Amino acid sequence: MIVIPFRRTLIQSFLFKFYTYVCCELRQTTIDATDNSMAYPYRRPISHAQQTIPECPQSQKVVGTSLLHQSGYLQATGEATYVDDIPSLTNTLHAAFVLSTKPNARIKHLDIEAASQVPGFVSFVTHTDVPGSNQTGLIEPDEEIFVSSVAPCIGAVIGLVVCESEQAAHKAANLVQIEYELLTPTILTIEDAIMHESYFGNEICLQQ
């Protein structure tokens, strides 16, 4: 085991340090003068430091100077190209989320009849269309891509409407009818969470 050689070396080191200390106290010259420092505790002097900031030439100073944004001329003249300005390719489809309007509510039924009548409607995607896992999350996969049963909050993603145009997608998404079953409790404030003892679980930590 590595601990046995270490302890032997440690004992030898302590013994040699003690021997050096005794020699120094008796003013013996049997040891080299460079080894004298090990006989006494090291007294670390107070450290000092100073910061030197070079003076910036007036031509390079930016504080108080009006600087032009790199794309300022393009944005001011309307020539800047954004994502919405990119021409759509042939057969491009557009999507819009269908979001929950209720917190802590079970999804009982989805009616897409009215949405499907919108010109350009192509499909409605839900959790049943996800081929792999419906779970996602940056650290812990504790969120659903699409709500499968209970919407935890307002704005939870229930589905995705796909249409031939962006306008049609948003219109169809607003026409999806959702039947909810409201669950209790509905927690909207910190005080509500404390009253119902609704807390996060154990903190995520690294363990050896």
From TrEMBL:
It comes from Rotaria magnacalcarata. One of its GO terms (molecular function) is iron ion binding. The lineage of its organism: Eukaryota, Metazoa, Spiralia, Gnathifera, Rotifera. InterPro entries: Ald_Oxase/Xan_DH_a/b, Ald_Oxase/Xan_DH_a/b_sf, Ald_Oxase/xanthine_DH-like. This is Aldehyde oxidase/xanthine dehydrogenase a/b hammerhead domain-containing protein. Residues 77-184 form the Aldehyde oxidase/xanthine dehydrogenase a/b hammerhead domain. SMART domains: Ald_Xan_dh_C.
